[in-house]
Design a protein that fits this description.
- The chain is an alpha+beta fold.
- It has one domain.
- Helices cover 22% and strands 24% of the residues.
- Helix 1 runs parallel beside helix 2.
- The longest helix has 16 residues.
Length: 114
């Protein structure tokens, strides 16, 4: 008798869904916590689709996302699997290392004090 543990994301049509790994989520949620403490962000949403995983950041719950952090494993060998996309759909940063890609958002924390 063999025992197979259930998958957290059941495959549909033989395809697995893309999801953020625990270490990736730790990096993203660390940044999210700092931005919430600064009063910049208020809510987030996570989507796991067939070819992309998306972490969306909102200023208010009922808005369009301010930023989308996407993971596309198919681009791993080309442009990099991580991308930060702005509200208007413009790619702000793309790369292979998640921490490096998220630095574009950390600059928002640095402000001049009046």
């Amino acid at each position: 008798m063999t025992f197979q543990s259930p998958s957290p994301f059941p495959a549909k049509g033989g395809q697995d869904q893309v999801a953020f790994h625990r270490t990736e989520l730790a990096v993203i949620l660390s940044l999210y916590g700092r931005m919430v403490a600064a009063g910049e962000w208020r809510d987030y949403g996570i989507s796991s689709l067939r070819d992309v995983a998306v972490f969306s950041v909102f200023r208010r719950t009922a808005e369009h996302p301010l930023y989308r952090i996407e993971k596309r494993p198919k681009l791993r060998n080309k442009q990099g699997q991580y991308a930060v996309i702005g509200m208007d759909g413009q790619i702000l940063k793309r790369g292979h290392d998640l921490k490096t890609v998220l630095r574009v958002l950390e600059r928002k924390l640095i402000r001049a004090i009046d």
